[in-house]
Write a structure and sequence with these properties.
- It is a single chain.
- 16% of the residues lie in helices and 46% in strands.
- The chain is an alpha+beta fold.
- The protein has a single domain, classed as Protein Transport Mog1p, Chain A, CATH 3.40.1000.
- The strands form two sheets. A seven-stranded antiparallel beta sheet has the order 3-4-5-9-8-7-6, sandwiched between helices.
- The longest helix is centred in the last third of the chain and has 12 residues.
């Protein structure tokens, strides 16, 4: 079967319910900037709490929280774990930023997924015993400033609350 690996992944994904930017599981509740529904469709990706695919390109946004069994590794190590499955990754930019009152690490890469060149942007932070990670994946041919803005809105509206 030929085609974009991201499009192939999207074929095997099912829709999920999500409303008003709120996600809750176990002992964590968090808010994110919900992407524009006319441009992004919610999907289910294994090992992610929330994910969306761009309706016109197959670009993917994903969010996950891990609140148990993660130890306390540095943000650089947590970012490296997110690179598993991608080949030939080349770090283009890395910087720290403040996110929901905590230090977060933002990293931008070029890599390959099933031989297809992609752009990959990752943001990782630790808060209230949880590791939160945000991922943007796009084939290099379709990556655009508009879709990066959707990723930035998702990340910058993030807020986590502990639940009882």
């Amino acid at each position: 079967m030929r085609g974009s690996p991201l499009a192939l992944v999207a074929l095997f994904l099912s829709c999920v319910g999500f409303s008003h930017g709120v996600f809750q599981k176990d002992t964590v509740r968090y808010f994110v900037g919900e992407p524009d529904a006319t441009r992004w469709r919610p999907i289910r990706l294994s090992e992610n709490d929330l994910a969306w695919v761009a309706r016109d390109s197959g670009d993917i946004l994903a969010v996950n929280a891990t609140c148990a069994d993660h130890g306390d590794p540095p943000l650089e190590v947590l970012t490296t774990h997110l690179l598993f499955g991608f080949a030939d990754h080349e770090l283009l930019d890395r910087r720290t930023e403040s996110l929901d009152g905590r230090e977060a690490l933002r990293s931008k890469y070029h890599a390959k997924l099933d031989g297809v060149p992609i752009e990959l942007e990752l943001v990782v932070l630790k808060k209230n015993g949880c590791v939160h990670d945000f991922t943007f994946i796009a084939p290099l041919a379709t990556a655009s400033a508009e879709r990066h803005e959707a990723f930035d809105a998702l990340v910058h509206r993030f807020h986590q609350e502990a639940t009882q």
